[in-house]
Amino acid sequence: MDHASIAFSGQFWVAVAIFAATYLIIITEKIHRTVVALAGAVIMVLVGVLHQEAAIAGVDFNTLGLLIGMMVIVNLSKGCGMYEAASIWAAKKAKGNPVAIFLLLGLMTAVFSAFLDNVTTVLLMVPVTLVIASNLKITPKPFLMSAILLSNIGGTATLIGDPPNILIGSAANLSFNQFLFNLSPISTVVAIVTLGMLYFIYRSVLHTTPEARAVIMGFNPREAISDWGLLIKSVFVIGLVILGFLTHSITHLDGATIAIAGAALLLILTRDEPEAHLHQVEWTTIFFFIGLFIVVTGIEHVGAIAMLADGVLKLTGDNMTLLTLSILWGSAFFSAIVDNIPFVATMIPLIKDLGASGMPMEPLWWALALGADMGGNATIIGASANVIVSGIASREGHKITFVEYMKTAIPITFVSIVICTIYLYFRYL
Questions:
Q1: DSSP 8-state secondary structure symbol assigned to residue 126
Q2: Model's pTM, two decimal places?
Q3: Which residues, 6+ apart, have CB-to-CB distance to 361 below 8 Å?
Q4: Which of residues 66 and 368 earns the better pLDDT score?
């Protein structure tokens, strides 16, 4: 069935209505978003938009496996005090100055996200952030917002930094070095601008007392290590996991396989009972993703995402500049409201079709990557890292609401995409 005939089918409008209702209720926060996403997913199946098999097939188990594996590793390894030690080291390097600590952690997040996936980065950085904020007696929200935004921006820089990049690299046969050469310069510029904007927004709360700074400077990172044996095992396993992510192009092992293998190895080395550590997994976040994947699969199944993307391409015709910038801005917009992984998966065949007609391909791939990766910053559900950090923040008593997040993130995302527009135009167009 083509897109035009789908648009007039009852199933199309039912799927779109379920999708819209799910997102609207999530935004209102009247009902927990996990409950809303699961309810939307179930309704997609009950009304016949999806069969159960198609719904399950729409769940990205690589993302879920990666999340679960890294959550287990982080929860196991934090028992040795390594994250407290890292936070004390960073705070002491910054002389206990909240502004300097804020900038240092932001840059660390961006760099780590380029060479790990951004979800892993925030899982490693957020515990550090919470410890630092607690010791300085200031709100951790500026640090949490920085972790979300800069993990997505830093992840844009490389092939392995963000799941959409992996999809694009595989489909377009683009290498790690091509991503590094084409996307790391603009990712660096956007990261610096974002840090500057975040400082401007939060500068009034980035203050502490001389007493709190003195306490921080009096700490010894070595004294924070409570279990040296666990530290050695944790560093060994985390090192192997990082190596696994870096050598993805050679081993072709997916993130879920690497993360779960790391979790299993650390459980074996520590001989801990797994039950306590599995309890620490953010299961509400995992089930939110499951529901969201199925709801998005529903509107994919009826052709809604493909229709919208196709419409953008038809409107631009043969104008390469208009087409490239439409993909950039369109990807940013849709990645803010739809998980960027299924959106990118939908766009890939459409861009391939354009290449078959003789149109230059590379600018279109970079526009798609930049729009999808950075557009995901605009809302709390736009990317995996956003959901993870907001979930941890809520559990620790520092809830970031949907609207509160957007007030900060939308202006920053808009500026990011404007910078990307200038970059794409002058470098490729």
A1: H
A2: 0.75
A3: 172, 351, 354, 355
A4: 368
